[in-house]
Amino acid sequence: MRTIAVLSAITIISFASPSLAADRKPDAVLKNKNIEARVLLDDPIKAEATLAADSLAEGRKWLEKSAAEAAATRKTDPILFRDGGWDFERKYSIRSVVADRYISVLRNDYTDTHGAHPNSDVNTILWDKTENKRISIRPFFIETADDGPAMKAILKAVIASLKIEKKKRDVTDTPADEPYKDLKPSLLKIGAVTLAPSTEAGKSSGLTFHYPPYAVGAYAEGAYVGFVPWETIKPYLTPEGLRIFGGKRPKGDEDDGQ
To answer: What distance in Å separates the CA atoms of residue 204 and residue 99, rounded to the nearest whole number?
Structure first.
């Protein structure tokens, strides 16, 4: 009942138009003495009505959960709010559209709870336009068993890619594999995945795995993206997987580290 009371005191304002602060108005806002939080959908997502509705519904639940947590924290640790309420933001953006069917969405979170520094997180959604629902990458693979051959090959390629990126940033890991100890050959423990764009229209050049700060390195290193070219996973693909993968990763995509 206390949770219901907290949520009933929260006002969530929805907007259909684009923001002033970040070139568009948020699509949902929650603001009270404890927190100001926003959800933003990019225009290509808004063009996909069912995906937009699904994302916004998820975003609103996140607003409510965050507000309830802020209210509970103020009761137990009011000093954490001496500089004002928390500031949260969630953005949904399209990363790729493959075969005019599979939409990869990045979900980026920003949170400032007045700690040593703000934090960020990233997760992903794979949306099937034909089925109008979220899916995983499982249908593209013959098998995705934990510790199976496909997941072991993907994990090996992800770590190799991350090591290359760390070298570009002049980051030296000691011991070498310590930052990757939490990554496992399991679809649920290897990282948030998207279908990478390709130089070949309608195809994906492979898989990209997205890691926020702290996930595979120190906070100061920032976020990382690990890329697995489709040629690496070709032996493990189903006919549908073979149909949608091809081409190379665009240079601009690699430079952006998305």
So the answer is: 8
Q: Return d(Cα 95, Cα 192) in angstroms, integer.
A: 13
113-119: average pLDDT: 86
pLDDT band of residue 255 (cuts 50, 70, 90) is: low
CA pair distance 209, 225, nearest whole angstrom: 5
Instruction: Identify whether 149 is preceded by a cis peptide bond (ω within 30 of 0).
Output: no
One-character DSSP codes across 111-172? EE-SSSS-EEEEEEEEEETTTTEEE-SGGGBS---TTSHHHHHHHHHHHHHHHHHHHHTT--
pLDDT tens digit sequence for 79-112 = 989 989 999 999 999 999 999 999 999 999 999 9
User: Residue 104, class by beta-carbon neighbours within 10 Å (0-12 exposed, 13-18 middle, 19+ buried)?
Assistant: buried
Query: pLDDT above 90 covers what percent of the chain?
Result: 80
In the block, which residue shows the tokens 């249908």?
139
Give the Cα separation of 66 and 70 in Å (integer).
Answer: 6
Residues 74, 66: Cα–Cα separation, whole Å: 12
The total number of residues shown for the chain amounts to: 258
Q: For the CA atoms of the chain, what is the radius of gyration? A: 20
Taking a C-beta distance cutoff of 8 angstroms, is the pair 85, 70 a contact? yes
147 Rama class: left (phi>0) / alpha (psi -120 to 50) / beta:
left
The DSSP bridge pattern shows strands 86-98 and 192-196 to be unpaired
CA distance linking residue 63 with residue 90, whole number of Å: 9
Task: Tell me the mean pLDDT in the region 56-85.
Answer: 95
- What confidence category does residue 243 fall into, taking pLDDT thresholds of 50, 70 and 90? very high
